[in-house]
Amino acid sequence: MEAIGSVDEANSAIGLALAHLTDARASAMLGRIQNELFDLGADIATPGENFTPSEMSLRVEASQVERLESEIDVMNAELAPLTSFILPGGDAGTAALHLARAIVRRAERSLVKAAEEEPFHPLALVYLNRLSDHLFVLCRRLNAHGSGDILWKPGATRAG
Fold first, then answer.
1. Distance from first CA to last CA of the chain, Å, rounded?
2. Beta-strand (E) ranges in 108-147?
């Protein structure tokens, strides 16, 4: 239940981001992701041994993970390499996506913990992992293709 709740929270944060975004390409990607997050919730809600999709059980499919990875590669090709950790932020839409990314990481941790006691679809975990990376790269793309990233300044507030 913890993982399902976190997936729902992430979906809501993406919805908040969409209310602020004007980038059509990002909005299309996020619209697909929102729908998939409902499917993912259904997948997580039906643990077991058989992970074959059927009329009675929605399952994450390899093609969905592959699409996320492909979109990550395309977006990364447009970005300058990272030279520092970045702080979550930017405009309201991008900040909401950073929040969604952190919530997706929580969902992933929750599902890993739950999988210690019950078998869950392995692709559900892969999807969550790739989604958090996807959201991170999308945030960089939306922050002026990385040039608007807010860089971490190690020790910047130290007194000495």
1. 46
2. none
Q: What is the pLDDT of residues 89-113, one digit of tens each?
A: 889 999 999 999 999 999 999 999 9
Q: Is residue 159 part of a domain?
A: no
What is the dihedral angle through the alpha carbons of 22, 25, 29, 30, rounded to the nearest 10 degrees? 0
**Can you give the pTM of this predicted structure?**
0.91
For residue 144, report the phi and psi dihedrals to the nearest 5 degrees. 55, 50
Look at residue 156 and tell me if it is in a domain: no
Residue 157 lies in a domain: no
The CATH number of whichever domain residue 21 belongs to comes to 1.20.1200.10
The torsion region of residue 89 among left (phi > 0), alpha (psi -120 to 50) and beta comes to: left
State the amino acid at position 79 in one-letter form: L
H or E element in which residue 40 lies: helix 24-44
